[in-house]
UniProtKB/TrEMBL annotation, chains A, B:
GO molecular function: DNA-binding transcription factor activity; transcription cis-regulatory region binding
Cited InterPro entries: HTH_LacI (IPR000843), Lambda_DNA-bd_dom_sf (IPR010982), Peripla_BP/Lac1_sug-bd_dom (IPR001761), Peripla_BP_I (IPR028082)
Name of the protein in question: Transcriptional regulator, LacI family
Keywords: DNA-binding, Transcription, Transcription regulation
Transmembrane regions listed in the UniProt entry: none
Domain of life: Bacteria
Annotated ranges, domain HTH lacI-type: 9-63
UniProt source species: Primorskyibacter flagellatus
Length: 342, 342
DNA sequence: CTGAAAGCGCTAACAA
DNA sequence: TTGTTAGCGCTTTCAG
């Protein structure tokens, strides 16, 4: 099965084994051009028998084409991003494109390194989370001459295309719903991540809309590290000790919201009567909680699918491609059981 | 900044811009061989100014070296796998190796396709979940002539190396702890996945050890799809309706265990007095629950680190490398608040 | 329908 | 310390 020495097999080996020229072997293996059934069979048989695996490195260099799409995201442990990936993969599976993932840990420097590394493989496109990048990163994407889709945010100016929701607007909408329900003393909890621009924008939209209603955030707290569920419990406890008259808690993500919810339910607090709660993201997990946490869907699957669709279209149709290059998806509020419906 | 036409920049462009030969430019950019500080500066300046990004495709073809490690896992949404990845990345960051992830969705056919695809990029090593693969997949890994580490399971025979825990033993240990605590009427809940060999092995070890203690699983149920937390609630409810005298529930993963726990707490069931509970994996999430679910850690971070270490060592030291090629990690039971400590 | 020749952009090996 | 030469394994192009 394997060849005598340990040198990987080449097209030439298949050519010799089948008595067909390298060129024709190549054609058979790629289903390109017309090849007679007889030779095709000979080639396929030989390739199978030898256990030939083509060398894409050489193929890519020769054809100047690489069927990879670089996907650059901040983290894999956030639930949110694997879901975007799922959307991307769903669409790419229908093409011959292949996603390759890079993780930035929410730092612009690592993002730059990862981007450089990935671009050096000459991918067919880039899908990257967020609109904030170093100048150098932006320059690289511009110079790469390939489609670039910035995802998950539309509050800013993209290098090329963008697909996502407006986090500012999401924050505003939630604030409006809260005010409308009659809550007045509002606490906020989130991650201590100056580099999580989307969370920041949500918070800005939130405070802005509250202000319009004459309300200010009465208390706020930020955490970093550790189990989000635990942090949600702890912060909720601490905040209510400090500011007992709060009647609403807005969490910057569902996990800490869930922690807060579990904590308050144990304490026997009346929700949403005495205190209302809301999170952000619409994670699956919430469905299994004793009460459904109010939240707002970030359209993660859709974002992934739309972004991949743009890349696929551009790769297939070239510059003549027709598509929306700026797509704003609109999330809807899920009131659940923790936010009065007014 | 960008070049005139839209052709990507080459070494030659940098060479011309700096007045240094291509070869020396290459040396500077790779920090290889001795280059005078003066020329080094000239080259780096030119490369930066032009915005040159090397072409790894060409580099890999010429050097016959690719600094990629193929990592093949069943899923990204299982929490477990991103954690293994974290371990892998932690170790690889200290080398010039780079992980590339492929997802199989728990099917051997897709695993085979993904493996083929990845091997065609001629990676320096493979890390792949599980010991069960198609003959063809096994043959490919054998023929690739690169280090292969099969992870997360040691109950079987690897192609090359393996790192993980024995799921059979994990099942047995949990059964023993349960029997020792005095529980007798035991229910089991898990995923309906004939292809999740590790869950299967755990179950086998579990029933085997129970049998040794003269106990049989009194009821069992399997689910597929949907939110695990919700499924945990639903199955727990259904099972206790059907078999009300159960005094212990063993869940094949922590998420459904958490769902069951939340459900039973709402019902006011005394845990672990009236009913004991245990899950599997030791996920972070559990820390935030009202009671700590008993579980068993699968050593995910360690598995990733050890596997990556093996690859890194083999790549660096070649066949002369010294390392354990079969590593069995031993998980410990966390009794939490849901399993009597005897 | 099949084959021969000429690179793709880079690096190993050697020469200067 | 620097430069020259000859490919890496495949595909493009063009000729049969």
């Amino acid at each position: 099965m394997a060849n005598d020495d340990s040198r990987p097999l080449t097209l030439r080996d298949v050519s010799e084994a089948s008595g067909v020229s390298e060129m024709t072997v190549s054609r058979v293996l790629r289903n390109r051009g017309d090849v007679s059934d007889a030779t095709r069979e000979k080639v396929l048989e030989a390739a199978r028998r030898l256990g030939y695996v083509p060398n894409k490195i050489a193929g890519a260099l020769a054809s100047q084409r690489v069927n990879l799409v670089a996907v650059i995201i901040p983290s894999l442990s956030n639930m949110v991003f694997p879901e975007v990936l799922t959307g991307i993969n769903q669409v790419l599976e229908g093409t011959d494109l292949q996603a390759v993932v890079g993780v930035t840990d929410y730092t612009p420097e690592k993002e730059e390194r990862v981007l450089y590394e990935m671009l050096s493989w000459r991918p067919s496109g880039v899908i990257i989370a967020g609109l904030e990048h170093t100048d150098s990163s932006r320059a690289m994407m511009q110079a790469a001459g390939i489609p670039v889709v910035e995802i998950m945010d539309v509050d800013g100016t993209p290098v090329d295309c963008m697909v996502g929701i407006s986090h500012r607007r999401a924050g505003r909408e939630m604030a409006k719903a809260i005010l409308k329900a009659g809550y007045k003393r509002i606490g906020f909890m989130g991650t201590k991540m100056p580099l999580d621009h989307r969370a920041r924008k949500r918070f800005e939209g939130f405070t802005e809309a509250l202000a319009k209603g004459g309300v200010e955030v009465a208390d706020q707290e930020f955490y970093s590290g550790g189990s989000a569920l635990v942090k949600g419990r702890e912060m909720t406890h601490a905040m209510l000790e400090r500011t007992p008259d709060l009647d609403f808690l807005y969490y910057s993500n569902d996990m800490i919201g869930a922690g807060g919810l579990l904590y308050l339910l144990e304490k026997g607090v009346d929700i949403p009567g005495e205190i209302g709660l809301a999170g952000f993201n619409g994670v699956d997990l919430l469905d299994g909680l004793p009460k459904q946490l109010a939240t707002m869907d970030a359209c993660r699957l859709d974002v992934g699918k739309t972004a991949a669709q743009i890349i696929a279209t551009r790769v297939a149709d070239g510059d003549a491609a027709e598509y929306e290059s700026h797509v704003e998806l609109t999330p809807t509020i899920a009131f659940g059981d923790t936010l009065k419906r007014k």
